[in-house]
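Journal club prep, notes for RB
We'll compare a predicted complex against what the paper describes. Inputs for the flavin-adenine dinucleotide case:
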Amino acid sequence: VVIVGAGFGGLQCAKALAGAAVDITLVDQRNHHTFQPLLYQVATAGLGADDIAHSVRGIFQHQPNVTFRLGTVVGVDVESSHVLVDPGPALPYDHLVLAAGAATSTFGVPGVAEHAFELKSVAEALALRNQVLTCFERADVEPAFVADGGLTFVVVGGGPTGVETCGALSELVHRVLCADFHALDMSAVRIVLVEATDHVLGGFHPRLRAYGLERLADMGVEVQLAAAVAGIEPTAVVLASRERIAAHTTVWVAGVRAVPMADALPFPKGPGGRITVGPDLTVPGHPSIHVIGDLADARRTDGTPLAGVAPVAMQAGRFVAQAIATGEPRVFRYRNKGTMATIGRNAAVTELPLGLRFRGFPAWVLWLFVHIMYLVGFRNRANVLVNWGWNYLTYDRAARLIVRPERDGSE
Ligand SMILES: Cc1cc2nc3c(=O)[nH]c(=O)nc-3n(C[C@H](O)[C@H](O)[C@H](O)COP(=O)(O)OP(=O)(O)OC[C@H]3O[C@@H](n4cnc5c(N)ncnc54)[C@H](O)[C@@H]3O)c2cc1C
């Protein structure tokens, strides 16, 4: 079995095949699993990188039927059943599980790829953390930089990630950096959330969306709704209305599409370049090739698409493992256990099946609990728990470090 991607789906699939009589090669372009839902906390100095990432080899130390291969998958030769990996030899497979996830979608907006910060990997989260902290250092000695939008942070995309990033940035600025920078006027800081639709937290009940907006306003985040971005420049965001927001930092969390690898695969694609799969999560005409998680255009029996969220990928990973182990094709049915997003300290929204909705402190506690439970590895769980406890009690952000490579390949 070759599994491409050690994300939420790939890991669950490999783990669920622990007792099966199969040899698994798990390929990933990175040597670690990334807990993407908490990347924004790394970007805003709430957590360290190794709190939310875990070495893949470490995860499978005690599962001898898994071999890890570090490399980028660049194609699949379906005729000879080989996965093409760069660098190194191709990998033969009897069963292939494609779980390579999603990449940022720029929607063709000029300047996004060149000037915006993205939030899909640990490296990108650290780049954003460096940028935010460096802007404050520069503003401390260069008043003209502030006047030019040096302390304006624009986040594009009002989904859960955009809302969470704005809330965490606001807390970093108004609870921590305001005490660090004695001479800096924090009223010059602007955090602007730009969203193309008329609401934030799409997918949540309107009452929870309204609560999200209220909390963001309380935290000093300026929300611009029904505002489409026409272009991003190094020091400005240009809206379709022609308004220019002077900003040296733009975070783009407006949408995702399939990873570039998908473009090279000879399979039918759905919206966002995702690979079309049947009800058993195999590619039509290729019963030994499964696609799961964010890479798959998987649908419910009524034709509605499954969301690109971690629980869908995890359940699909376990489902495919069972299909491979038993050889029995079945229909994948996603069990929705709810959705949640946090806005800041004591403030979150949670929507559970059967119309159960929470907001504020109870939702926030539930959010903390679920995220700790789903982190990979006891050490990461313990670290995050201690860090969050410390941050909560002291308002501290110990990870507010600017760390850049000083020579090629070394820090
Ligand atoms: C910032 C952010 C916040 C999020 N917040 C939430 C949340 O709160 N709740 C929630 O449920 N979901 C959230 N999500 C979505 C969730 O993270 C994804 O749905 C989930 O990661 C999908 O799992 P996956 O296994 O399909 O892909 P991933 O977890 O993305 O894993 C894909 C893996 O494939 C590897 N890979 C990619 N291309 C190649 C290649 N060519 N060769 C080799 N390896 C490759 C990658 O390195 C990666 O390790 C968030 C996502 C982001 C980016």
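Talking point for the session: The two ends are 37 Å apart (CA to CA).
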